Amino acid sequence: MGTGQPVHDWCQDETRLGLKTLTGKIITLRGVKPQGIVGWSRDNFYLYGVVEPLSGESFFGEFSHLDHFCFQQFLNLFSQAIGFRLNLIQMDNGSFHKSLDLKWPDNIIPIFQPPSSPELNPIERLFLITRSDGGLKPYLESLKPGDFVWNRLILLIQSD
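^ thats the sequence. predicted structure below, dont judge the formating
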C-alpha cells in the first residue's frame, strides 16, 4: 500500500445454476405408502462473481463445486485478470471463504460482511433475481455448462 494507486472495492458472491430436482406425486390408496422410481436430476454448476459497483466492472467464473478448491481457482483467475491493482473484496462468511488452505493473492484483500446481512452486498441482489420464480430462474435452470446460450450469457456478463 502507499503506492498512490486507487483501491478498487468489489462485491463477491456465488450461486448455483442448472437443472433442479423435480418432485412429483403418486396417487395411492389411503394408508398405502407411495412407491415410485425417483430420478434425481442434479446436473448443476456454480457461478462465482465479483462486481465493482462504482464502475460496473465485473468478473464471473463457472465452477463445478462450492468449496475452497474452486474458490481458490476463482481468486487466482480474478487476480490475473485485474493485474497489479489493489482490490478489496466484500463477501459473506461462507466457510470456504475463510478456509485456512486458501492462498490469498497479494493484490486481493478480503472483507467479511456481518452475518445474515445480504442487503449489504449488491451482487447478492443480482443473484436473488436469478433465483426468484418470476425472474430469470426458470430460464437459467434449463441451461447447462457448455450450452451455446450459457456460453453467450457468460460472454455478455464479462464484456465491458
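The two ends are 28 Å apart (CA to CA).
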